[in-house]
Design a protein that fits this description.
The protein has 186 residues and is of the alpha+beta class. Helix content is 16%, strand content 35%. Strands 1, 2, 3, 4, 5, 6, 7, 8, 9 and 10 form a 10-stranded mixed beta sheet that branches.
């Protein structure tokens, strides 16, 4: 099931293969925000924390719904806050990832300077790979790569995102989408 991949996977999803048992990434969907020779970084899209933005980072309530959940973006720097937003004016994003969705600047001094943000999601931590590390994991077939869609970032049912993306990819991946979380219990 190998396929030719672009040089940069920015704007792509890494869908954890069933063989990836690392508890940090089992059945995750990671949006790649940066991918270069130096390494890669992204955020896990389908791990809501159970903690609201209002509880964890009150200053961000103005950007997101106070009752919205903070997502566990990955095991690297879990105290770091990363925000993805869908910008009405995409050029205002710090880094655009897919469509008009991009990362908000690390320091926001004036929320008005960001313009209108249609939707946003807050992540604690991120996923990171050193030089060549992601490429090695791809060679081991630890990840299934799929082009991201803006709606993936804001999935209404994050528990279904893993299966939804595999179904969308189609072919043999659609069969994987039906796999239960723990096949040994089947």
């Amino acid at each position: 099931m190998s396929e030719a991949l672009p040089d940069s996977l920015r704007g792509h999803l890494l869908v954890a293969a069933p063989s990836l048992l690392d508890p940090n990434f089992h059945r995750t969907v990671v949006l790649v925000g940066e991918h270069a020779e130096e390494g890669a970084m992204g955020v896990v899209l389908n791990r809501p924390s159970g903690v609201t933005v209002g509880e964890a980072v009150p200053p961000l309530v103005a950007l997101v719904d106070a009752d919205g959940l903070v997502y566990v973006g990955g095991p690297v720097q879990p105290e770091a806050i990363v925000v993805l937003g869908e910008f009405e004016e995409p050029e205002r994003a710090d880094v655009l990832v897919v469509g008009a969705v991009g990362f908000l600047p690390g320091e926001i001094e004036d929320g008005e300077a960001l313009g209108t943000i249609a939707r946003s999601r807050v992540f604690a931590g991120y996923a990171g790979w050193g030089s060549g590390q992601l490429e090695a994991e791809l060679a081991e077939s630890s990840w299934i790569v799929e082009q991201a869609l803006p709606d993936d970032v804001f999935a209404a049912d994050p528990a279904e995102l893993w299966s939804d993306v595999l179904r969308r990819k189609g072919g043999p991946y659609a069969v994987l989408a039906m796999m239960p979380p723990d096949p040994s219990l089947n």
